[in-house]
Amino acid sequence: MPRRKTADSDYSIAGLETTMDDPSGDFSPEDSPVSVTFQASDEKNENILRPQYLEDFQGQRQLKENLAVFIRAARERGEALDHTFLIGPPGLGKTTLASIIANEMHSEMRMTSAPALEKPKDLAGILTNVTENSIFFIDEIHRLRPALEEMLYIAMEDFEIDWVIGQGPSARTMRIPLPKFTLIGATTKAGAVSTPLSERFGITGHLEYYDDEELKSIILRSAGILKCSITDEAASLLAHCSRGTPRIANRLLKRLRDFAHVMRADGVIGTEVVQFGLDRLGIDQNGLEKQDRAILRTIIDFYQGGPVGAETLSISVGEAVETLEDFYEPYLIQQGYLMRTPRGRMVTPKAYELVGAEYKGRADNADQGLLF
Ligand code: ADP
Predict the structure, then answer these.
(1) 334: Cβ–Cβ under 8 A, 6 or more apart, which residues?
(2) 95 a catalytic residue
(3) Which helix (H) or strand (E) holds 292?
(4) Whose CA is nearest to atom 13 of ligand 1?
(5) Beta partners for 65?
(6) CB-based contact 119:20 (threshold 8 Å)
(7) Is 139 designated active site?
(8) Which of 139, 143, 187, 340 is catalytic?
(9) What are φ and ψ of residue 39, in 5° steps?
(10) Do residues 107 and 87 touch, judged by C-beta distance below 8 A?
């Protein structure tokens, strides 16, 4: 079964490899193979660390408080929640929030990922199967094909789709009404989503990197669920090295549990286990990985500190442009090691210090106006 693109993904989406290849041009009213349905609180498919209700979801205080109000109001009016747009780097909780919204609304959720939707009938197959007030979650919505995007506009606004039957002069359009549903779209790249699509979302939530205290409480909660012991100090240290990202915090916690299991008779994760484990995993005290340092080093050694274009850089470091842009760069920028300028990526003096290279000032007069 294919897994989501992010390396540390913790669930898979069934049937992504399947396309609905129906030569008649009709779509099947059967359950679409390009989506997965969750009932509220469906334990079976969920990762056990994923919070199920808003009260377990740490951090993102303002977004969470606003969502609590909108969900309550929609539920008490017996209506579907407005379409919701979740924006933020990978691993910050967009999918988790979508499933929490479904749980809080006591409704089922269907989920898919935009790259899995190849043809209009893939999307039509799902839309005609959504139920009243249910949630339809599309991950990576910035990768939706234009023809499907148009179908989605109408579905979001008018709760219907136009379906063309037949070909040539005998073709006719059938208008299919849809139940009132909530679309939740998630993206790591808000700028790549077209304005007509983003304008059709009534609620927009930006997820920010988590601070150390928030990550620490996520780590302590996860340790409780995984039944592993971690000292308070070790949890703080691990939080600081988790790149502001719950998915990374949870992944590192699982690995440190393995180190503790082998290193210590009592299996407790103490600070020495965290230091040893992170060192073995190539993660430094700021949470930067080998590849982060390799990216900075490459810009310094081969491009005199930049500017260098994303495509060139991705080839130089052997990383997909998407992974570079979605995963590595946002954190390096947030931490002040990297800048995006109109002429490409440039490192800051802080990056020279990190990799132990001598900073000799800028070799050129690169325009440093920021792009984001
Ligand atoms: P995204 O969809 O943004 O890539 P996910 O929702 O898949 O991220 O989150 C990754 C993992 O991180 C989840 O499985 C969950 O265990 C954990 N997680 C994310 N956000 C939170 C949070 N606010 N509180 C607790 N755990 C979280």
Answers:
(1) 209, 244
(2) yes
(3) helix 290-303
(4) 50
(5) none
(6) yes
(7) yes
(8) 139
(9) -80, 155
(10) no
Q: How far are the Cα atoms of 44, 223, 281 from residue 227, in angstroms, in the given order? A: 19, 6, 23
Q: Give the amino acid at 266.
A: D
Model confidence, pTM: 0.85
DSSP 48-99: TTS--SGGG--S-HHHHHHHHHHHHHHHHHT-PPPPEEEE-STTSSHHHHHH
Alpha-carbon separation of residue 20 from 117, 154, 162, 178 (angstroms): 9, 22, 18, 20
What is the Å distance from ligand 1's center to 147 Cα?
31
Structure tokens given for 303: 């491009």
Domains, the chain, in order of start with CATH, read: 3-206 (3.40.50.300), 212-280 (1.10.8.60), 290-367 (1.10.10.10)
Catalytic annotation present for 162: no
How does pLDDT run along the chain (372 residues), one tens digit per residue?
333 333 333 333 333 323 333 333 455 544 455 666 655 554 444 489 999 999 999 999 999 999 999 999 999 999 999 999 999 999 999 999 999 999 999 999 999 999 999 999 999 999 999 999 999 999 999 999 999 999 999 999 999 998 888 888 888 888 999 999 999 999 999 999 999 999 999 999 999 999 999 999 999 999 999 999 999 999 999 999 999 999 999 999 999 999 999 998 899 999 999 999 999 999 998 899 999 999 999 999 999 999 999 999 999 999 999 999 999 999 999 999 999 998 999 999 999 999 999 987 765 545 444 444
